[in-house]
Task: structure prediction
Amino acid sequence: MSEADLFMLVRGPLFHAALAIFIFGNIIKFFEILMLGHKPDYAEARGSAVQGGIRTIFSRFIPDAGIWQRATITVIAGYMFHLGLFTVIFLFAPHVLIFQDLLGLKWKALPTQIIDAATLLTMLALLILLMHRLRDPVRCFLSRPCDYLVWSATMLPLITGYLAFHRFGIAPQTLIAVHIFSVEFLLIIFPFTSLTHAFTLFLARYYTGFTAGHRGINA
Amino acid sequence: MLFTHTVAEILEQKGISRRQFLNFCATLASLMALPSTMVAKIASALEQARRPSVIWLSFQECTGCTESLTRSDAPTLEGLILDTISLDYHHTLQAAAGEGAEQARIAAMLSQQNQYILVVDGSVPLGNPGFSTIAGISNHDMLLEVAKNASAIVAVGTCAAFGGLPQAYPNPTGAVAIGDIVLDKPLINIPGCPPIPVVITGVLTHILAFGAIPELDSLKRPKAFYGQSIHDRCYRRPFYDLGLFAENFSDEGARKGWCLYKLGCKGPVTYNACATLKWNASTSFPIEAGHPCLGCSENHFWDGGGFYRAISLPSGNTANTAAYAVTAGLAAGVALGTSNRSRKAQAENEHQIITIHTIDKADKKDKA
Result:
């Protein structure tokens, strides 16, 4: 297979397959969660459950003092990683084009120097989080092979994207093909791993806030 | 002109001064990215080199490569080289026709065995020998016959180097590149649609001066000319880095000369010297004229997913795929959700209330 064939394969059939699995899998997951329903709470409402749900979706973005103290590294590196990943995925010009192609929406991209720095910071944060996971006995004990798979599947697109942008080593077409393939791998495993938290965190927070709001508690 | 004449003698006869000759050698060294210390060696080698015989075969091609070479501005380096080599057979350029032309080819092959350079433009059809013939000989047979005693083969143009347009999907003639047929000879690919003239002559001069082929990349292209991407040498690169793009051919970005990435520019994945050597006596190149690079010096560039589609975009209609996946996901999600609910309801129905009295009763029954 030539470099061009590989490039066309990952841009064509493989991308379509990965996209279809990603969308299909996530929708199924959502329906399974939503259709499970929840037990009716017959107690008299002491506050608005819906307001509580919406409030918690946003309030949980700010870690409370206890979490700051107990998990400082996780909070700092976690924020660094998530913000960096968001910047790299959604604000790099070639990526914006893909969303435009897929959704018909477009927004302004950031200069490549900023994306470059964000990529490095994101990779650094991921490394810190991995080290922390390995060194902390509790986290290490709780980690399963799937957690390391998810970490690797997230790290790979960052590494391959960085290499493709800077054209280190092999031909750029092959580097981009490898980068796209790594993203496709991420899309494929997404609905079947803890990566789904990117979507389900909103459901989970809403549910927590909803039940707490009904009881008049600020969650 | 006899083959015993050296290049220096020929240039002298043409009124080229020593200073002009050394200038030419310096230009060549610069083009091939050689150190300045090589200029004297190139001059010395060229002065003593015998006039090389070149046989040029044209197969499935459009003659654009020959046009590129001959329409270059005169007097130029490429003109100088064309005058210096003995182009013994080129059925577009030669005056002879029919049997006479073929005799010239055979004479050159016999008299310069293992010394002549074979230049080929165009791809070779393997689907049917009759798709492309010269003097009744199929391209495949003529290529093998001439390549047999050639010292080196230069595949000029993307058709010869990679199959090019004739090989584009669905490849009706079964077109293949020269390198797919001739496997036992030194091969240099000079792709481009067409290639830059000075790259063709630069490579021929390199063979002439050093008696060896230049350093090649993995696609057998001379690294001196194909070592850097168009993107890395493009004068519009700063706009890419700043995130400033032309969105269409008539917007503000296009007028201000911003990056053409979004209009499908293949510069980031195309290796060629257009951005540095340029065209038409170094006047400009396609991107400078406001058009995205088509990636013509790369393999399969005709089937690269659309000239005006950005390289980061997937090929095909992703919105359709997404719509199908959403529909299928909704149907499967509702079906699975319903199934889960009915299992839950069934479990609730089958649920038995067990108290400590029930267990006591069961224990007493067992003991009895």
